[in-house]
Amino acid sequence: MYELSALFFGLLSALSWGGGDFCGGLSTRRADPYTVVFVAEMVGAVLLAALALIFREAMPDLVHLLWASAGGLLGAVGLLVLYQALASGHMGIVAPLTAVISGGMPVLFSLITDGLPAPLQLAGFALALAAVWLLAGGAGETLTRRDLVYTLIAGVSFGFYFVFIDAGTSAGNVFWSLTAARALGGLLLLAAIVVMRRPLLPPRAVLPVNSLTGVLDAGGNLFFALAAAVGRLDVAAILASLYPGVTVLLAWGFLGQRLNRPQAVGVAAALAAIVLIAA
Prior knowledge:
- There is one protein chain.
- By secondary structure, the protein is an all-alpha fold.
- It has helices spanning about 1-30, 35-55, 60-85, 90-115, 120-135, 145-170, 175-195, 205-230, 235-240, 245-255, 260-279.
- Helix content is about 80%, strand content about 0%.
- The longest helix has 27 residues, at about 1-30.
- It starts with a helix and ends with a helix.
- The mean pLDDT is about 85.
């Protein structure tokens, strides 16, 4: 029963994060990427704090707040470094490689802390990571050493984000811990915006979609934390890492972007991976 709940919340996390990335992509067409991420972080923090107050959630202890805050800072660092790598123009390999690294790290961590999962789940993990790569288009590019270093830093930062958020929310105090994570991440981005002299807010016409990005991204964080709380961390992280598939499908459905052959195979691989993990 718990594993089915982890599967359910993990898939909701992928859906929410994928939708958030789609809205974020629309926003960055007309606004600075750092501004878009900053607004999304702060909208998410306000939403999560409101939910904590509505459900009268108790404030977590200092240890859990520190774990969650460290995760939020690492997530913001990952975003900043990722955008530096994406700026080089090698998006076709930077994005999937970052997702594969970030999804693989919690698997290694869970192998140490929780032991081996079932053989079918291991096969599902491998297939899911392959699906993430394919969903980004097959990535037939090469990276410079500088961009490779940036990509590795981003992937490792996001991987530790999964681990730290799991540690910060394991006591059941999810809303306040995630609020702390997003608030600190937003403050780090605010500092970067000030230093780099970027705009603080996007154009007014972009703000609604940008705000929706924050809502969906916060939902992805929440569902991932719930998935990790009721099941294994590796299952939650791998399922959540399928979010690029949701973004690709939304772009296909709403923007008319065609799926190439690797992406079509990636969608099928992702569905097969979900079946194997659920089994």
